[in-house]
Request: fold
Amino acid sequence: MPKIDIHNAGGKKVGTLELADAVFGAEVREHLLYAAVRFQRGKARAGTHKSKQRSEVRGGGKKPWKQKGTGRARQGSTRAPHWSGGGTVFGPVVRSHATKLNKQVRAAALRSALSRRVAEKAVVVLDDFTLGEIKTRQVTDFMKKFELADMLLVTSIDPNLEKSARNLDAVTVIAPDGLNVYDVLLRRNLVLTRAAVETVTARLLPVDGPPTGGPASGEAG
Reply:
């Protein structure tokens, strides 16, 4: 089992912790990371882009000129696609960009992302991290002590801590239950409290061993 030091918020070592091999020492499978990020980013897309088709644009109810005798090509409506102000052919329509990814595969991808950060020695475990007041400087001072250019902080949401960090572009604060592959890969450094490690381990520890299946494809219904 990989071992990691536990520090307090002041940077002092206060103990060690053994991380579960199945969660923090798993094989890093790149294709699962790609599938999980694609799944998350697809779900986050609004899909509200829309252009009007021929039946949706206003006007064009009257035939512009009679069928024969004018010397011009016959036309049925001024809202045909080749007319100025006409409808759009094959334009974007409102739709979902979500794809399907099995729950076990998503869990395996998160284990891969966490294991990558552990292998890179980019994980910091704290005994606890709370703030008594809203002070952004306390967050930046913490990052300087640990020499962190950015961080994903996984801890039980503390309102003071969340408000202190929300205007820092290089910091993301997230609850253990919301930990996901995209946020882990977005930040180069992962900071967890001891309680967060226990919650994440309980959530991701395989019951019957790690899944072997690959990502499923296709549009979500």
Remarks:
- Residues 210-221 have pLDDT under 50 and may be disordered.
- Strands lie at 3-7, 13-18, 123-126, 151-154, 171-174, 190-193.
- The CA atoms of residues 1 and 21 lie 5 Å apart.
- The chain has seven helices and six strands.
